[in-house]
Design brief:
alpha+beta; Protein Transport Mog1p, Chain A; 2 helices; 12 strands; elongated
C-alpha cells in the first residue's frame, strides 16, 4: 500500500511567500544596480566632448575668423550669420545665439522673487539651478576657461549663457530655455564646439 503525500495549506502559503520575498529582493537589487549605473562620473562644470558620429547628420557652422566650429541640429535654421553674431532657431525665432561680445554679467543682480525689479523689469541671474548651484559657475571648454550662468526676466524669459573670455575674440553662447526641453539640445551643441588654440 502506498502512502499518499499530504501537503497542508500552510506549507503552500509559506512556499509562495518565500518565492514572493525572493523575487522582491531580486527586483529591488536590480533597480538599485540600474540607478548606480545611471549616475554619471562627469562633473557638472565640464562640457563632455561628444563623438563625431552623434552629429554625423548635423550641419556644421565653421567660423574661421572666430577660430571655432560647431554642429547644430538639422531642425534648426541658420537665421543670422555675420561678423559679430550667429543665430539658430526655427520659424524665424532665435533659440541659440553665438556672439563675439560678452554681456556684463557682473552688473546683473541675483533674482529675488519678492523684488519685481529683479524678476520682471530687468534680467537677473538665477541662483539655484538643478545643474548649477552657484549663480556664476566656472566651466572648462576644451583648453579654455569659461563661465556658465542662467538668466531670467519674468516667466517666459529663461536663458543659459556660456562666456569664454580668455581668448580673442571672446565668445558668448546663449540658449533660450523657456520652451522646455531645450537645455539638453544646447548641451549637445556645446559638446560639438571646437575652438582653435
Amino acid at each position: 500500500m502506498r502512502k499518499q503525500s499530504v501537503t497542508s495549506p500552510n506549507s503552500s502559503a509559506v512556499t509562495y511567500l518565500l518565492l514572493f520575498l525572493f523575487l522582491s529582493v531580486v527586483i529591488l537589487f536590480s533597480m538599485n544596480l540600474r540607478k548606480i549605473n545611471s549616475n554619471s562620473d562627469v562633473p557638472v562644470n565640464e562640457v563632455e566632448v561628444s563623438t563625431e558620429d552623434e552629429f554625423a547628420n548635423w550641419p556644421t557652422l565653421n567660423k574661421p575668423e572666430w577660430g571655432m566650429k560647431l554642429k547644430y541640429p538639422p531642425s534648426y535654421e541658420l537665421l543670422t550669420n555675420n561678423s559679430t553674431k550667429v543665430e539658430f532657431g526655427w520659424e524665424g525665432v532665435p533659440h541659440v545665439t553665438i556672439s563675439t561680445s560678452v554681456d556684463d554679467y557682473n552688473k546683473l543682480k541675483v533674482c529675488n522673487g519678492d523684488d519685481p525689479d529683479t524678476t520682471i523689469l530687468s534680467a537677473c541671474i538665477l541662483s539655484d539651478q538643478d545643474v548649477q548651484k552657484q549663480p556664476i559657475a566656472p566651466l572648462k571648454i576644451g583648453n579654455y576657461q569659461a563661465i556658465s550662468y542662467y538668466t531670467s526676466r519674468g516667466v517666459d524669459d529663461y536663458w543659459r549663457v556660456i562666456a569664454i573670455e580668455d581668448r580673442m575674440p571672446k565668445l558668448q553662447l546663449r540658449a533660450d530655455l523657456a520652451g522646455g526641453g531645450l537645455s539638453g539640445r544646447f548641451d549637445q551643441i556645446l559638446s560639438s564646439l571646437q575652438i582653435e588654440q
